[in-house]
Amino acid sequence: MALLGYLLTLAGQLNAMARGLLFVAAAMTALAVCYAPSPGALLFEAGGRFAFFATFVVALGMMRLPAYRSPLVRRCGQAMLLQPPGRRYPILSFGSMLFGIILNIGVLNVFAAMIEKSNTLEVAQGRVWVRQARQRRMMLALLRGFALAPLVSPMGMGVAVVLSSIPQITWPALAPYIFSAAGLMFLAGWAVDYLTGPHPPANQAQAVPSLAPLLRFSALLTGVVALVVVIAWLLQVRLPVGALLGAPASALVWLAWQRRRLGSACLPAAVTTAHRQLPWLLSPSANEIVVLGGAGYLGHLCVGVLDTHTLAPLLKVVEGWGALNAVLAMLAVLGLAQLGVNPIVTVTLLAGILPALDIQGLSPVLIAAALMVGWALALMSSPMTASMLILSRFTGISPLCIGYRWNGRFMLAVVPLLTAWFAWSPF
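Predicted structure:
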């Protein structure tokens, strides 16, 4: 009931994708009422998935409150941007991945603003082409690192979607696949950045800052993830459910630490800050909440209404392909994203349907890994994603140019590499 009340307050505030998804969900609800064997139970379970994903977005969003106010975050950003050209890509990509785990898409706003502020003609010694090259290389490192965050984070959206849609798999079983794929994408991006250059001489007068702030932030992030894992273990719940408790608790502790000078009043002050600023923080997340929750709702209804026997002709075609179907799933997520279909929707639907087909040689964990990798590739390339629009706003370069011209060589290298890796996966 609270979820329905919240959705009513969003009238007139949603974008076209969120409104379209709600319309399709309403139509699928009508079909479920007419054709599902137990429509009441099915709608209740689907509504529960909507509520879970909406709560998940809010819980992770609370981590942004202390992060936006943290001097440590600002020092980390400055340290990463002022590295020599040879080390800038891996450090900036790895750093944006770490910060993306907590800040989500907010990391693009924070770091892109830092890049534009620091990448001046004075720093480039008056060379316009150097400034433009640095802008392209740093923005691509930022984008690719951010896209890896939902892939590798146990608190990420991708993990929450696949673990809730495919309950027979666990995070420890999934981790070797997605970490290996993330490593391949990271190395491919680094290699393409190095080979495509250019490599202007570094400014010798500029001091190279220490990476100690980044190490401290890594320790902080490790503590947050450890708390989530411990909560999930103690309560015997799945990892995304542990994140619902661990992320808000970590946010309050971090806010209290920032107010430690207040002594025993630091925790009440942290609660007051969260109460005042959370509406401001979550207002821009309305579309994200509706798209993620609606996709979960729609995916559950599709699986409940769809008769898998009607897919028998399709099953006869694809069952002989075995693990290659994982490649097709990855390419489906990537391809539909180029047409404007949010990866959240595609991943949720395919994660609900593909395991039900029971294709020999296509394990549920391989399906989950392929869908998550397709999601990451979509974030790196589709000109219709929010991440690409943010970078376009800061750079003045069109999303099409960033996605296809700037990033085209990387995509031409990494997609065949991941295709081969999934086809002959060692796991």
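Summary: DSSP finds 21 helices and no strands in the chain.
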